[in-house]
Amino acid sequence: MSTDNTTDGSTETESKCGASEAQASAGETDTEANTGSKCGASGAESGPESSASAGEASPSTEADDTTSECGASSSSSSSSTSSSCGAASSDSSDEEEVGATVDDFDADPGRLIAVGLGPGQPEGMTARARAALLDAEHIVGYTTYVDLLPDEITEGAEDIYDTPMCGEVSRTEEAIDRALAGNDVAIIGSGDPNVYALAGLALEIVESKGATATMLDFDVVPGVPAAQSCAARVGAPLVNDTVSISLSDHLTDMPTIESRLHAAAKEGFTITIYNPWSRKRRDNYEKCCEILLEHRDPETPVGVVHAAGREDEQVEIVELADLPELGETDLVDMTTTLLVGNEDTYVWDDRMVTPRGYETKYDY
């Protein structure tokens, strides 16, 4: 991972959010300048924080640091060197530290809400999610997800703060600091905020700052998770007992993932596989296929849904035995979700069907 920090050492950016200047240095790098947020969100995103984007390159950036509404130097417009997962790296550490605490803010707290966008297209967003975003003063999120927002939402917001890949920790803290500074803030993500997303991280950081969820009127607006939106593309594969497992070993080590795969596969759950493939995780995908084939019939149906709800969506139903060879194709990547059937799942009329058990009690 790169540890270069190319921010200007001679300038100090001033926070607009009410945090005291004395606290601003906490968690920042040991450079001469203070270019991070005095609300605590670091402009240089120093940790490999994203499970969904490790190994991807960050978007090109402009030369000058941009101060956010909360005083943070926006990663999408700073001249920091990208790390292996797209985030700007720090000279001093690979770990981020929480900066400002609740005591550093003079304003009455605003509101923080975590909003799930669903599968991607605007029509897949719930009415409650749309209403929450229209009411929000500030919207914070990963650049790709911000780009999915309808114009009426982006045009109605007072400010939008986005970061490229691997900025989960810093942008979540940015959202919290903005809320502590008195703003009504929405932090967004695809799918649902409680499924491999930021609702939990937000509460952890709120706690670490000495604030409370009640103080920020914290709320979660659910969205349609990838498992459900992708299942809808291939029929009815998940109507009985089911589990979800991510193959990303960024936050969960591979031995644990393997153990969970063995446990789920041998017990007959249908399984949704998130984050199946990246350039750095070929071995994870191959190991997953090996474990599934150890416990399941090679003819078990598997739904493969690439980029559900987006322009490049692709959908196929294959047999489990065919899954390993798909790892080197464009069909399987980090935007793909795999839906693995159980011993009862079958394909009828080009659709996956997993019986719920009605046939054992009723004649039809």
UniProtKB/TrEMBL annotation:
Keywords: Cobalamin biosynthesis, Methyltransferase, S-adenosyl-L-methionine, Transferase
Polar residues: compositionally biased ranges: 1-12, 22-37
Keyword Transferase: yes
Any one of the GO BP annotations: methylation
InterPro entries: 4pyrrol_Mease, 4pyrrol_Methylase_sf, 4pyrrole_Mease_sub1, 4pyrrole_Mease_sub2, Cbl_synth_CobJ/CibH_dom, Precorrin_MeTrfase
Pfam families tied to this protein: TP_methylase
Matching PANTHER family: COBALT-FACTOR III C(17)-METHYLTRANSFERASE-RELATED
Protein's UniProt name: Precorrin-3B C(17)-methyltransferase
Name of the gene encoding the protein in the UniProt record: cobJ
